[in-house]
Design brief:
Blueprint: E1 6-7, E2 19-22, E3 27-31, E4 39-44, H1 58-63, H2 66-81, E5 92-94, E6 100-106, H3 114-123, E7 129-135, H4 151-164, E8 173-176, E9 181-183, H5 187-198, E10 208-212, E11 216-221, E12 233-248, E13 256-273, E14 278-283, E15 294-301, E16 307-314
Parallel strand pairs: 6-7
Antiparallel strand pairs: 1-4, 2-3, 3-4, 5-10, 6-8, 8-9, 10-11, 11-14, 12-13, 12-15, 15-16
């Protein structure tokens, strides 16, 4: 939601007036104060946006007549009760704000990985940061078969190396926004890379909007905001478990209990984007099986290139144990 409290100059009418306007995207309520240059209550609820709202000061409320106060409160009640204009409980908007997608390639059979796994857990609550854990399977021969390892995770890491042209595949490895890679436990370097990505102009990211109910998830990809963005890209959908705890009895980490955060359970390409706005509809019944908490959507230049946009669709609470 988006709202603001604005100040007007000039002489306002002493008789309060309530103006309600509504359309598919917004409801606004304006109530003038009796005299002078004072605040006007202004609430605008926009579908698919976060809620921010302003309210007159206590001094202003005292200056309002009893009729004005009643009008103001009635207007607020009408706005808040107009549920048809509000997003559903499980909808989320990822606008063209800067975002940093942090992908950790890790393994339960790698003794160097636990510090990186723990570090990834500290990133998940940072604003505009999407952290993902990809367990690979190429260390399974060392004495412990990774219970979260998937061949497609290993393939994604190798595709990144091929796209960069450096052939660097190792664990723990972090890739930020599909570009630079770092040792997963190098906190300062990773944090610096995240900071750099979040300082990029919003116009460099393609807007994504998600809505869903019990039956369907709709992914809306916006138009390219610059000529440089107008390129072929893949819309990836990733099914994620927020936390998985694993006891390891063999291999390099034998005897340890390790927590893995935002574990990618499945990677699915669900559509293509060529620079023009498009909508992709998917059945919710296939997206939230037991053990899956959230869906992450990435818009990524084809060939595992740079990430152009990203967002999370939050699901319900499920069993988080493997």
């Amino acid at each position: 939601m988006v709202a603001s409290c604005i100040t007007c100059s000039g002489t306002l009418p002493r008789q309060p007036k309530l103006k309600l306007s509504s359309n598919l995207f917004a409801i606004t309520c304006r109530v003038p104060v009796n005299s002078g240059t004072r605040h006007i209550f202004y609430l605008s609820l926009h579908r698919y946006s976060h809620l921010r709202w302003g309210f007159p000061s206590l001094w202003t409320m005292k200056k309002l007549s009893s009729i004005s106060r009643r009008v103001l409160l009635c207007g607020l009640a009408l706005v808040l009760l107009s549920g048809v204009f509000l997003p559903t409980p499980h909808s989320l908007a990822a606008t063209s704000e800067p975002v940093a997608v942090v992908e950790l390639f890790t393994s339960q059979g790698c003794s160097s990985c636990p510090p990186a796994d723990k570090f990834l857990g500290t990133l998940q609550d940072q604003p505009n940061v999407i952290s993902l854990s990809f367990n690979v399977d190429y260390w399974d021969y060392l004495g412990w078969k990774d219970t979260l390892g998937r061949p497609e995770n290993s393939r994604r890491q190798k595709d990144y190396a091929a796209h960069r042209g450096d052939g660097r595949v190792y664990t723990p490895q972090i890739v930020v926004n599909g570009g630079n890679h770092f040792v997963g436990s190098s906190k300062s370097k990773v944090n610096s890379a995240i900071s750099s990505q979040l300082k990029r102009p919003a116009s460099e990211f393609v807007p994504l909007t998600f809505t869903h109910d019990k039956k369907q998830l709709s992914i809306k990809v916006g138009d390219a905001l610059s000529p440089a963005q107008r390129k072929d890209a893949t819309v990836w959908l990733m099914l994620v478990s927020r936390e998985v705890k694993q006891e390891i009895s063999h291999g390099e980490n034998r005897g340890k209990s390790i927590s893995y955060h935002n574990v990618v359970r499945q990677i699915m390409p669900v559509g293509m984007w060529h620079g023009d706005a498009t909508t992709i509809n998917l059945p919710m019944s296939e997206l939230m099986p037991a053990g899956v908490d959230d869906c992450v959507v990435l818009l990524q230049a084809s060939g595992n290139g740079p990430i152009l946009g990203a967002g999370i669709v939050r699901g319900g609470e499920h069993d988080k144990t493997h």
